[in-house]
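Ticket #4471: structure export looks truncated?
Reporter: QA, pipeline team
Priority: medium

Steps to reproduce: submit the single chain below to the structure queue and open the exported record.
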Amino acid sequence: MYEPRSFRAFRVVVVVGLGLFTVVPLYVMVTSAVKPLRDVQGAFHWWPTHPTLRPFIDIWSTVPLARYFVNSLVVCVVSTALSVLIAIFAAYAVSRYRFVGRGPFLVTVLSTQMFPGILFLLPLFLIFVNIDKQLGFTFLYQTRLGLIITYLTFSLPFSIWMLASYLDGIPRDLDDAARVDGCRALGALFRVVLPAARPGVIAVAVYAFMTSWGEILFASQMTNDSTKTLAIGLQNYATQINVYWNQIMAASIVVSVPIVIGFLLLQKYLVAGLTSGAVK
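Actual output as written to the record:
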C-alpha cells in the first residue's frame, strides 16, 4: 500500500516525539540518581559531572526503605494470591454454570469499576474503625490485613470478569472429557481448564499485583509508620529541611526494577490473556 512521503515523515516525527517523551524522563531519573545532592539542586546538567553511587547506599539509612519494601511485598503478594484464587472459582462458576442471579452478579461485578476509588475511602475507613472498636484492639485499620482487604475489593471484581471472559473461550468439551475420565468439577478445573487458561490467570495476577504495588490514596490513609508501603515511604525523603532528590531517584529505580523484570518475563502471557478476554 502506497503511503505519501509527507505522511511517512509525519509518522516518524510522531514516533520520535513519543519516544523522547518516554525516554527523557527516565534518563533524567537515572542521571539524577548518580549525582551528589548539590549537583541535583544546582544548575541542571544533562551528564553527571561528579558521578557517584552514594545515593544508592544512603537510601537504606535515610528512611527504613527495607521495611517499606517488605510491607509492599507482603501486601501485594497476599492480595494478588487471594484475588487470583477467588477469581478462579468465581469465574469458573460463572463460565460453566447457569444459576439464579448470574446476570445481576456479572452486572454488579462490572459496575464496581465505574466508580472512582475515592468513593470507597470513607466507607472502608468507617468499617475498619468500627470493627476495631468493637474488638477492642487494632485489627484492620492501619494494618497489613486491612490494606490487603482494601486492595482485594478493587482487584477482585475486574479479575473475575476478565477471567470469566477467558474461560468462556475454552471449549466445554475439555470439561466433558475430564468428567468421562472420572474427574469431578474441581478435578476438571485444576487438571484441565486451568492449564489451558494459564495466560488468563497470569494476566489477572499481573493486573492485581500492579494495582496494589503503586497505589497511594488508600495506603496513605490506611497505614502508619510501621505498615507504610513503598509508594508512601518514598515521600519521607522530603523533610522540612531538605529534599533528597538524588535518593528519591535512586529509590525509585530500586523499587521499579523488580516490577519491570517481572513484567518483561510475563509480557507474552499478559498480552495473550488480555487479548483473549477483550475479544470475548
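Status: closed, not a bug. The export was complete when the record was re-opened. Leaving a note from the reviewer for reference: The radius of gyration is 24 Å.
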